[in-house]
Design a protein that fits this description.
Oligomer: single chain
Radius of gyration: 27 Å
Number of helices: 2
Strand content: 35-45%
Largest sheet: 6 strands, mixed
Helix content: under 10%
Shape: elongated
Structural class: mainly beta
Length: 633
């Protein structure tokens, strides 16, 4: 009789969510693994190989990788200047693989732009084994590393989709790909069908694999030098109908409901075959507390549909309520409502400025995870007036100018709320006293006669947000001055400072561009369509190099990113919705922290609720105004 053979060890649950995250061929030949998933993964009995030896056991710093955690080990055999590293489960299934050309892993080769999901880049700083790669990554990720495997299917056609998340086209004519069969030779992207030699900025390329993709397989993408660009691994059924990144181009993989090859991912699936997302909607964390006397949240109004083509939120799924209940009660707003515009201070990103509709400005700082008024500036906010010290500005939006001053929009004077007063006011935050008056004020009311009907509702549809946009960005991106028809030359406008101001009109969702002159006059540069019914907040984000126009539930809680197009005009680029876990309210304020605050490939994003309604009475979010989430670096 023959003795029964022991059954092969089963692959651990979610093994495909473990990614090689960093590797060095300098001296100690260290490898770092990262778990992109939401549950711990056992790596007991796992093995590794390079391009010249068979799989061998290694001794990790831990036999289990916690969710979002790291494990490191030193290679049992040396890793060369030009080498390949393959990780296997105890049953021999390929988990992940990375290859590098000569000196590509000196001092280290690391995923940059997000642990476990970012593009492979040779680092220029010291390695960060056992911790996030963010501090070890270069400040600018090379264009080739912006190309991602974005979707893959093993459902008949075995198709791979690449996405270029960068701002310039990338040549891929000599790039190759391979599956998880270590005996297979890499195939050329350009020799596959359809043939592709270049991928445009923000564009897609699809091709059918000539080496086949199995039901339990991987796809690895290599550039012309033999460096790994990206990879994905899926379990049985994980790529049927497809395995897609969620959010499109940036997130981790999940099994889709419908394949969207050649276009933005639908991210509507619920499967977990490919990794991270798994169809989760995230968690709403924090909140709670009893309403204070007189605090009366207001139910949202004006809910509309989400624009076609809107993509899922590209940041984290979880959102935290980040203020104390009824925190923004004032003498002119005792109900606690109407916190509107938000803006991080670029010179000090630990400061968040906030505008409250009824003539108040708040300087907020973080304390125990919550944004609270900075007591050293004012524990109760500072009241603002129009030029000369009169009136009650219906303050809606704000931005920080190049001079460090706070610029606030108002759409009317609340003491005469049937008459529009669309103004931008400049305040010096260093000014003393409990009341602030503008250094300068610019009144554009006459440009919007449609708002001057004698109706307070129409008067309330004016300037809702404003963003300061540096001249340097406009000139570097080839913005054409609408007044001259030639390339924008800031020197033509000597009194305007170092940038222009883009004010968002709630009435029709347009942006209005102004040069604000130091003598109190202003230059009007024209109007930009955002494709939205309304705009509630505006900001310029240096990280994405985009202007962002935000709309609340009127437009399905969305954020439209705008760029300078090939014709020199500011035009829409992409639109994202809010994280799915957030309420559908009048979320009028939005801001993303500067990239200097990045941790683990993400930075903070914040929203403000104009009605502090949350999900309504009895919910943990009722009575709170500020939400905090994450956005990719």
């Amino acid at each position: 009789m023959l003795a029964a053979q022991p059954a092969a060890a089963a692959d651990p649950a979610d093994y495909q969510k473990v990614r090689i995250n960093e590797v060095t061929s300098s001296n100690n030949d260290t490898v770092e693994l990262y778990n992109t998933g939401s549950t711990a993964v056992s790596i007991s009995g796992w093995k590794m190989s390079d391009d010249s030896f068979s799989p061998q056991s290694f001794s990790p710093s831990s036999s289990t990788i916690p969710a979002g955690g790291f494990v490191t080990f030193n290679s049992p055999k040396g890793l060369g200047d030009s080498d390949k590293l393959v990780i296997y489960t105890s049953s021999g299934t390929v988990v992940d693989r990375v290859e590098w050309a000569t000196n590509g892993a000196k001092p280290a080769m690391a995923r940059c732009g997000g642990d476990g999901s970012g593009g492979w880049v040779t680092t220029t700083a010291a390695s960060t084994f056992g911790a996030s790669n963010a501090s070890g990554c270069p400040s600018s990720i090379p264009p080739a590393s912006r190309v991602r495997i974005n979707e893959v299917t093993s459902d008949g056609a075995d198709t791979v989709e690449l996405y270029n998340g960068g701002t310039s086209a990338v040549s891929i004519g000599s790039w190759k790909y391979v599956d998880n069969d270590t005996g297979h030779s890499a195939a050329s992207v350009s020799s596959s069908s359809p043939s592709a030699t270049s991928i445009p900025a923000g564009g897609y390329v699809t091709f059918n694999s000539t080496i086949g993709l199995g039901d339990n397989d991987s796809a690895f993408l290599l550039d012309s030098n033999g460096n790994t660009v990206d990879s994905v691994t899926w379990a049985a059924g994980g790529a049927k109908p497809s395995d897609e990144r969620c959010a499109n181009g940036t997130g981790w993989f999940q099994t889709s409901t419908t394949a969207t090859l050649g276009s933005a991912n639908s991210c509507s699936g619920g499967g977990g075959g490919g990794g991270g997302g798994g169809g989760q909607t995230g968690q709403l964390l924090g909140g709670g507390g009893s309403l204070t006397s007189g605090c009366t949240p207001e139910a949202p109004s004006g809910t509309g549909s989400t624009p076609a083509g809107t993509l899922a939120w590209p940041g984290g799924l979880d959102v935290t309520i980040a203020d104390n209940v009824c925190a923004f009660t004032t003498s002119t707003g005792p109900e606690g409502r109407d916190l509107s515009g938000l803006a991080f201070d670029p010179a000090n990103p630990s400061v968040l400025w906030a505008a409250k509709n009824k003539d108040w400005l708040f300087k907020l700082v973080k304390s125990n995870g919550k944004w609270i008024p900075d007591a050293s500036w004012s524990a109760t906010g500072k009241q603002i007036r129009f030029l000369g010290g009169s009136g009650e500005p219906d303050s809606e939006g704000l931005t920080v100018g190049g001079n460090g001053h706070i610029y606030v929009t108002s759409e009317r004077d609340n003491t005469h709320n049937t008459v529009p007063k669309d103004t931008i006011m400049e305040f010096d935050p260093a000014a003393t006293g409990s009341t602030l008056t503008p250094i300068h004020q610019w009144d554009m009311s006459s440009q919007f006669p449609q708002l001057n009907t004698g109706s307070k509702d129409d008067a309330n549809l004016g300037f809702e947000g404003v963003g300061y946009v540096p001249d340097s960005w406009l000139t570097a991106n080839g913005w054409v001055d609408p007044l001259t028809g030639a390339a924008y030359n800031p020197a033509n406008y000597p009194l305007h400072g170092s940038g222009l101001f883009f004010a968002g009109l709630e009435w029709d969702g347009t942006l209005h561009v102004y040069g604000l002159n130091s003598d109190g006059t202003f230059t009007t540069f024209g109007t930009i369509a955002t494709g939205k019914a309304s705009v509630m907040d505006v900001m310029f984000d240096a990280g994405t190099q985009r202007i962002i126009a935000t709309c609340d539930n009127t437009c399905g809680e969305t954020h439209t990113f705008l760029k300078v197009n090939a014709g020199g005009a500011v035009a829409t680029d992409v639109t994202y919705t809010n994280p799915a876990v957030m309420p559908t309210d009048n979320l009028e304020g939005f801001a993303i922290a500067p990239t200097s605050t990045c941790v683990n490939g993400f930075r903070e994003a914040v929203w403000s609720d104009d009605g502090i309604y949350g999900f309504g009475s009895g919910s943990s979010s009722y009575g709170h105004a500020i939400y905090s989430g994450t956005f990719p670096c």
